[in-house]
Amino acid sequence: MLANSSIQSMQTDFETLNLINPICQALHEEKYILPTPIQEQAIPYLVKGRDLLGCAQTGTGKTAAFALPILQWLEQNREAVSPKGVRSLILAPTRELAVQIGESFRVYGRHLRIKQAVIYGGVRPALQIRALSRGVDVLVATPGRLLDLLNQRQLRLDKVGVLVLDEADRMLDMGFLPDIKKICSAIPSNRQTMLFSATLPSEIVKLSRNFLSDPVKVTVNPPSSTVDKIEQKVLFVDRENKSDLLEFILEEDESIQRALVFTRTKHGANRIAKRLSKVKISTEAIHGNKSQSARLQALEKFRSGRVRVLVATDIASRGLDVDGITHVINYELPKEAESYVHRIGRTARAGTDGIALSLCDAGEKSYLRKIELEIRSSLNIDQNHPFHAQSIASKKTGVRKSGSKNFSDGRGRGSRNKSTTRAEGKNKNFSFSRNRSPGKPVNGKKNIRNKRAS
């Protein structure tokens, strides 16, 4: 039986969550003041040793929700780690997410004597094996590499006291279920287990029944909901004009300071990145065929602002957590409606607004319809661009026209810019931003008030 924790969130601070002083000190140094809803709901149960099923997307603070209780458990139950031993294990679907989780443990546990390691595929295992040889308190791993090293007897899991399955739905999508089952069979059954998933399909519910014992269920932002502060638009365009439209969007509005562009294929991501780079739009691509070092380098450039555009596939972007993404652009619509929700959730973080633009060709109208059913809302059509395809827009899909409104028009909140008339060629007054004058950059300053732990 799942204990449902859909409690009314009240503003509190981390000290009220019964966290020890060294952890609270690290959070204070990072200027984290208020816990997010999932942290506020999950941490009190986890510090008591309960199993947990968490439904939360990237950006809700779920990493801290499990990292802080694990660090506290390790400190309060300190014991020597045996050679090749592991005390707590976190499984993640991608290398990028594993690295991010490892960094979070390092930051939150800076005042604790914690040994940790992060292991993943795509690199030589020698350094990872060396890190594991003396044993670790925290191990963050992707399933494939972990199972390889386990089969080589380079680590032991018989002393694991806490197990976390992060982004379990994506691990299932990527075919990791057999690996996860083998890994779990090597871990003691009297452990604490946490399972986090952005969605709760029947496969995840079944998995939770097998791996969790009397878990509490915490749900934040149900999977079918979209962030209210994201303005969503659809642009109808012929397939052969998509590249020109994307280039037009990025050239015409300087307020698009940091854009995440989604494609369905690795080849498409490379092609778009190469084209944009040729017209002096700083761009990097990230996908499964890239080496680990190349992917991490691209992410660092995007985070630091040295690269304005990051082109990504769905799997490669999962777990990508970058602040300040002003726009998400769906160059190609996803076939699965839930992936649309994951994609656009990369913007409008930490109380900021965000804009999601979807370029839809004739072959993607059915995907658009599924998306609208999933989010229970029709996307506004914006036809004020040089590549509008009226023949595609006129097909019956259930979307509504936004009339003469342009990208600066939202859903009736605050003042709006007047629409611009489409001129021959490129319209220099064209703006894809919300509540901003055309060409005016976004304020790049971070708002650190009430900063929340990720």
UniProtKB/TrEMBL annotation:
Helicase C-terminal domain location: 244-393
Region (Disordered): 386-454
Pfam families, sorted: DEAD, Helicase_C
Domain DEAD-box RNA helicase Q intervals: 12-40
Alphabetical list of InterPro entries matching this protein: DEAD/DEAH_box_helicase_dom, DEAD/DEAH_RhlB, DEAD_box_RNA_helicase, Helicase_ATP-bd, Helicase_C-like, P-loop_NTPase, RNA-helicase_DEAD-box_CS, RNA_helicase_DEAD_Q_motif
Molecular function via GO: ATP binding; hydrolase activity; nucleic acid binding; RNA helicase activity
Sequence ranges assigned to domain Helicase ATP-binding in this UniProt record: 43-218
GO CC, alphabetical: cytosol
Keywords on record: ATP-binding, Cytoplasm, Helicase, Hydrolase, Nucleotide-binding
Record SMART domains: DEXDc (SM00487), HELICc (SM00490)
Protein name as catalogued: DEAD/DEAH box helicase
